[in-house]
Each structure stands twice: as structure tokens, then as C-alpha cells.
Design a protein that fits this description.
The chain is an all-alpha fold. Helix content is about 80%, strand content about 0%.
Length: about 525
């Protein structure tokens, strides 16, 4: 399902080229009369319409646009409130994001469980509505306490990203598409939003910060309305008719019995596999580096004296390269040149190299060059997630809990980001106060974390390859032994028959000799 023509097994169940009988046997095996065929055909047509990436991609661009405007706006607000004290601003911004992500660590699996039990659409609408409330509060009450409050609201209720990935997983499995490519497609939508949002946010930050927040709130409200009107529910795509009826009955009577309020349930289900635990460690290490995003604006403003508009332009360029890498180049790299494992390893090396090179930049234009040279480093996250989803689908009922899995992955990610939101601002503040200032210290630390992630992933997939090789060898040895025994029986039977034909023994003696030798041969093996 992930890397080759052999991976299209799931597509044999769901693709449009399949016969009506195949679809009916999977989804409507309880239909028994010819009159039901029109109903099944209509349901298949409806499912094929739902299994479209267009709507979720467009909505994800709106979602990304709403919060990428804030990337220059929030640090600019904090710098304004702290009288341009970059060291203090970095610490405050890091603490505010720590509050957001530590809350999201506990809440994301619960929202993922809710999305599995009640559907993706309500959770996605909730994400847009919470974003709108957050931005309205910032526009009306711009202060340090309000920044902490809105960050907390976002951590408690905003599950837009994991829900979007769950929707894409539903569609990809239904259609039999490579999941890593579709994750890259979704990542490229964020890249497209990055092309517009940060530049516009930087430009408006120089005019009016409340205007930035008001624009984000309007985009979020539009996203909520469009989600309500046009987003189809994808949870039922892989359900048979009986499961669909049960799902819709629970929706109608507001049954929340399957929604777990224990935030560790998702982690316990999907980390019960040894391979998932091994893959989670390097994912945690490399995701900590996301904390660099919280100091990038402040770093560029202090190190290169860049105005808000220039910083927004660089972030827009960064988003453009991300969109190209995750939306276009990844389709040629996976599975054409690399599988998910090798692509992740290579991209981790490139990301580490990028962090080290940024630490050595002395002019702002050098950041553009580094971004181009190491642009493929951003594909490690979709490739990483595809690896983990591939393993999760091997678990019992793993295909039924993809939103829960995305919530569990979001918990790991948010815990790592929470660590990064404390680590990198603290390193920046420490480096800024050194004589001479060493503001690039966080980027050196990020390079070390990427190296640690590379080593952990290498050994995780290396052990997996060894296990697979040993399993193949065992199968080969078993086949060889079976063939050898079959040849031995044939040879013994032939020899006994020749002896009987030559008159050296009668039929009963030949049978007795053949049986005796075969029994000895079996005991010897």
C-alpha cells in the first residue's frame, strides 16, 4: 500500500475499475435481492464522490492561512509589549507555546477518539471555530495574559491538523494510494499557505496588529462555514452496511460511549507494538526542533536587523520550497528513488545540515541559499508518519482507529514541541546574553537533535530489516527441507519399485522396506 505495484492490494477492493459484485461483497454482503443493486451502486457512487482530496486540501489551505498570518504577528506583539527585549520576548513566547502544546498533549488523543466515534467533520469545524475565537480575543485584548489564554484555548480544542491527516488516511486507504505521497500533498497545502500568510502577516504587522488578528478570525470563520457545507464525512468509507447503520444510529442519538476521555488510551493502543515504540523515539527527537519556529522571527530581527516585512518574505519563500518539496518532489522520490525509511534517513541528514548552515549565516540572503540546498529536509515528517501508519495498519483493527492514531501521533508531536518551546528560547536567551552574543546556539542544538534522530531511526529500521531477513531465511530453509523430503520419498519409492520389478523382493516386502526407511528419515529430520 505504501511503495510499489504490490502495494495496490487495498485498491483491488475499492477502485472504480472493480466489478459491482466485488464492491457489493465488501460493503453490502447482507443485500440479497436484485432490487438492492441500485442501492449499492448509488452507495458506491456516493463513496467515490467522498473519496476526493480536493475539498480537504482547499480547507487545509484556509486553515494554514489563518494561523500562518500569526507567525510574524504574535512575536511582533510580544516584542512590542516587552519594549523590543528579544531575550525576554523569546522566553515569554516559548512559555506561551509550552502551555498550548502541553495541554494539546493530553487533549489530542481524546479529540482523536471523538473523531473516530462521531466523525471527522464536527472536530474539524470545532478547530476552525476555536481559531476564530482565539484571534478575536487577541484583536480586542492584546496583552501578555491574553496571549497565554488564547494559546491555552488552542491547545484544548484545536485538533485541525491531526483530523485533516485522518481524513486523508481514510481517502488514501479507500483509493489504495500511497499514504506518504498524500501526507506530502497535505503538507504542501501548508506550504502554499506559508507563501501568502507570513508575508501578509509581516506586512500588516507594520500597519496594525489587530488587523492581522481580525483577518485570521475571518479566514477561520469562512473555513468553519465551508467545512459545514462541503466537507464529506469519510469515517464510513471502509465500513460495511451494518457498521454504517450502527455509526449513524450513534450519531443520531448522540452516543459517546466509544469516546475515551483517557488521554493515554490512544498512546497505549498504538504504542503497544514494539516497532511503533522504536519509531516514536526518533520522531520525538526530530520534532523537538520545531521549537526553532518560535525564535526564528526574533532571531532574524535581532541578528540581521530585518524588518517584519522582510522576515515575512523569507518565511513565504520557505513555505514555497516546502510546498514544492512535499507536493511535487516527494512523488518522484517515494517510491521512485527511496522507500519511506531511506527517504526519512536522507531528509533527517539534510535537516541537520540546514540547521548547522543557518548557525553559520552572517547575512540574511544566505538563509535563502541554505533553504534551497536543503529543501528536501522537510519530507521527513510525511515519510515518518507514513512509516508509523503502515505499522499501525498491521495491528488488530488498526484501520478503524486512524483518527485515534493521528491523535496519538499529535500527542507525541506536541509533547516534543512543548519541550522545544522551552529549550530553544532558553538557549537563545542564554546565547544572546553571552559576550560576544551567540544567538545561533539553538540551531547548533537542533543539528545535534537531528543527528540523534537519524541514529535512533537507523537502528530501529536496521533491526526490522534483520528480522525480515531472518524470517525470509527461515521460510527458505523450510521450503528446502520440504523439497528434500519430497525428493527422498520419491527416490525410496522408485528404488523399492525397481527391486520388486527385478524379482529381488515381493510387493509386501517392498512396501515394508519403503515405509521403514521413510519412518527413519522422518525421525532423522
Amino acid at each position: 500500500m505504501f511503495a510499489s505495484k504490490e502495494s495496490r492490494g487495498m485498491e483491488s477492493k475499492f477502485s472504480k475499475s472493480n466489478s459491482f459484485q466485488s464492491y457489493r461483497s465488501i460493503f453490502d454482503d447482507d443485500c440479497s435481492t436484485d432490487g438492492d443493486e441500485e442501492k449499492v451502486i448509488a452507495r458506491k457512487r456516493d463513496d467515490d464522490r467522498k473519496a476526493s482530496y480536493v475539498t480537504i486540501c482547499l480547507l487545509f489551505i484556509i486553515y494554514g492561512f489563518a494561523f500562518t498570518i500569526l507567525i510574524p504577528a504574535l512575536p511582533s506583539l510580544i516584542l512590542k509589549l516587552t519594549a523590543q527585549d528579544s531575550a525576554k520576548s523569546s522566553v515569554l513566547y516559548g512559555l506561551a507555546n509550552f502551555v498550548r502544546y502541553i495541554l494539546e498533549f493530553f487533549v489530542a488523543p481524546v479529540l482523536g477518539s471523538l473523531a473516530d466515534a462521531k466523525g471527522r467533520k464536527p472536530v474539524f469545524i470545532l478547530a476552525f471555530v476555536i481559531c476564530a475565537v482565539e484571534f478575536v480575543l487577541l484583536a480586542c485584548f492584546p496583552s501578555i495574559p491574553m496571549i497565554f489564554i488564547t494559546r491555552a484555548l488552542s491547545g484544548l480544542f484545536d485538533a485541525g491538523i491531526p483530523t485533516a491527516f485522518a481524513i486523508v488516511t481514510d481517502i488514501a486507504v479507500y483509493r489504495g494510494d500511497p499514504v506518504s505521497q498524500q501526507y506530502g500533498l497535505l503538507g504542501s497545502m501548508i506550504g502554499i499557505a506559508f507563501v501568502i500568510g507570513p508575508y501578509l502577516g509581516g506586512y500588516l504587522s507594520e500597519i496594525s496588529l489587530p488587523l492581522c488578528f481580525a483577518l485570521s478570525a475571518c479566514a477561520s470563520l469562512c473555513g468553519a462555514v465551508l467545512t459545514f457545507l462541503y466537507l464529506e464525512e469519510t469515517t464510513t468509507l471502509r465500513m460495511d452496511s451494518r457498521s454504517r447503520r450502527s455509526f449513524h444510529r450513534k450519531m443520531a442519538r448522540n452516543d459517546y460511549s466509544e469516546v475515551s476521555i483517557n488521554p493515554l488510551v490512544g498512546l497505549s493502543i498504538h504504542l503497544s507494538s514494539v516497532k511503533l515504540r522504536l519509531l516514536s523515539l526518533p520522531l520525538f527527537f526530530c520534532t523537538i526542533t520545531t521549537g526553532l519556529n518560535f525564535i526564528m522571527y526574533i532571531y532574524m530581527a535581532a541578528e540581521f536587523q530585518a524588518p517584519a516585512r522582510s522576515i515575512g518574505m523569507y518565511l513565504a519563500f520557505h513555505g514555497l520550497t516546502n510546498a514544492i518539496s512535499q507536493g511535487i518532489l516527494i512523488k518522484f522520490l517515494i517510491p521512485g528513488c527511496f522507500n519511506e525509511k531511506n527517504a526519512t534517513l536522507v531528509s533527517l541528514l539534510l535537516s541537520g545540515l540546514q540547521s548547522m548552515l543557518i548557525a553559520g549565516c552572517t547575512e540574511s540572503w544566505e538563509l535563502y541559499v541554505v533553504n534551497i540546498l536543503c529543501c528536501l529536509g522537510v519530507i521527513h515528517y510525511p515519510a515518518f508518519k507514513a512509516l508509523i501508519v503502515k505499522e499501525s495498519l498491521l495491528l488488530p483493527d488498526g484501520d478503524k482507529y486512524q483518527a485515534n492514531l493521528q491523535g496519538a501521533l499529535a500527542s507525541i508531536k506536541t509533547l516534543a514541541i512543548a519541550v522545544g518551546s522551552l529549550l530553544f528560547p532558553a538557549l537563545y536567551s542564554y546565547g544572546a546574553q553571552m559576550q560576544p552574543p551567540m544567538r545561533s546556539l539553538p540551531f547548533l542544538a537542533a543539528g545535534s537533535l537531528y543527528a540523534a534522530s537519524f541514529v535512533a531511526l537507523f537502528f530501529a529500521v536496521h533491526d526490522e530489516d534483520e528480522d525480515r531477513t531472518a524470517e525470509n531465511n527461515n521460510k527458505h530453509n523450510a521450503t528446502t527441507v520440504s523439497t528434500s523430503r519430497s525428493n527422498s520419498r520419491s527416490a525410496i519409492s522408485a528404488a523399492a519399485g525397481a527391486a520388486v520389478d527385478a524379482g529381488l523382493m515381493n510387493d509386501d516386502e517392498g512396501i515394508a522396506m519403503s515405509s521403514s526407511i521413510l519412518r527413519y528419515n522422518a525421525v532423522d529430520h
